[in-house]
Design a protein that fits this description.
With 219 residues, this protein is α+β, with helices and mostly antiparallel strands. It has two domains: 3-121, Jelly Rolls (Sandwich), CATH 2.60.120; 146-214, Winged helix-like DNA-binding domain superfamily/Winged helix DNA-binding domain (Arc Repressor Mutant, subunit A, Orthogonal Bundle), CATH 1.10.10. It is 36% helix and 26% strand. A hairpin with a 4-residue loop joins β10 (161-162) and β11. α6 (176-183) packs across α7. The N and C termini lie far apart (38 Å).
């Protein structure tokens, strides 16, 4: 296997970014560990800081100041994803909200790129970050060709932690509010589908208080 093939495999593994962040290139005083919880928000008005998600799920929300019911969840970010873009659309702004507890590394954007550009994988990491954004955008757009029931099941499979061939544990805090914002429907519609899924035992709460999703077996 040649260098380019190995390089491609490494970059497709998002832990390569974490390994660089945790290396000696980034001194402890450059990185600040922060914990955010449900109800907190990260708003990047000028994009001065970069956040690397170490634990938890964060919803990328396009917020409408005049009508909270029209908020759009553009993507769900997870471990090793970056929060670093700045976006402004008319009376809207982008905010990042944790579904429950999330742990992040925070660093000044200028320092981050000054250090990272000395690393041989610098260009590849930037490309992979852009590819990840495109992947999330494609997932968001693709869902609208399906019925709401199927869109919700696809979201559960996308975000769930697989514990067996057919079973997934859903992230804490993934409620009707975020599902509706992602699927572009009302919470009433989402709650109706969730009730139907509970009735047929496709989702159920475990003894630990988290929801388990059971994937349909393919015929």
């Amino acid at each position: 296997m040649d260098y380019l093939a190995i390089n491609k495999l490494l970059i497709r593994d998002k832990t390569i970014l974490q390994s660089i962040i945790n290396s000696d290139d980034f001194q402890d005083d450059l990185l600040e560990t922060i914990v955010i919880r449900k109800g907190d928000r990260i708003i990047q008005d000028r994009g001065q800081d970069i956040y690397i998600i170490e634990e938890g799920h964060i919803a990328k929300i396009l917020t409408h100041n005049k009508n909270i019911e029209k908020n759009i969840c553009q993507a769900f970010l997870g471990e090793a994803d970056l929060i670093w873009s700045n976006q402004s659309i008319s009376d809207s702004k982008v905010s990042y909200e944790p579904l429950s507890k999330a742990i992040l590394k925070k660093i000044d954007a200028n320092i981050f790129f000054n250090v990272l550009e000395t690393h041989p994988f610098f260009t590849d990491i930037l490309i992979e970050a852009l590819n990840r954004n495109e992947e999330l955008a494609e997932l968001y757009a693709k869902q609208f060709q399906y019925e709401l029931h199927d869109r919700i099941l696809m979201l559960f499979e996308q975000l769930g932690t697989q514990i067996s061939q057919q079973n997934f544990i859903l992230p804490k805090g993934l409620n009707a509010h975020y599902i509706a914002a992602y699927c572009g429907v009302s919470r009433v519609s989402v709650n109706r589908v969730l009730r139907e899924l509970k009735e047929v035992k496709l989702i159920e709460k475990t003894d630990k208080g988290v929801f388990k999703f059971r994937k349909h077996k393919k015929a």
